[in-house]
Write a structure and sequence with these properties.
Length: about 80
């Protein structure tokens, strides 16, 4: 049986922790927004922009972002 091909995604998932203690999992950020010398720092800016749009639409402001981290990938069974 041939090995499974790894699927390359155009998005990277992040877990976000807010200053009020809430957490948002699997926030998707386009892969093109990341990289370079800044690493994952552009992801925080992108997620903050998403939060501003969401809070404008819902009328409820989000708390400030305390930290972000990449969502751990599932271990392959190979």
């Amino acid at each position: 049986m041939p090995p499974k091909r790894k699927i390359l995604s155009s998005f990277v998932s992040f877990d976000v922790t807010y200053a009020d203690g809430t957490r948002s999992s699997n926030r998707r950020v386009p892969y093109t927004e990341l990289g370079g010398f800044d690493g994952d720092e552009p992801a925080k800016t992108f997620i903050e922009a998403q939060d501003r749009e969401i809070s404008a639409a819902s009328g409820r402001p989000r708390a400030d972002i305390s930290s972000i981290s990449r969502t751990p990938q599932k271990a392959s069974k190979e």
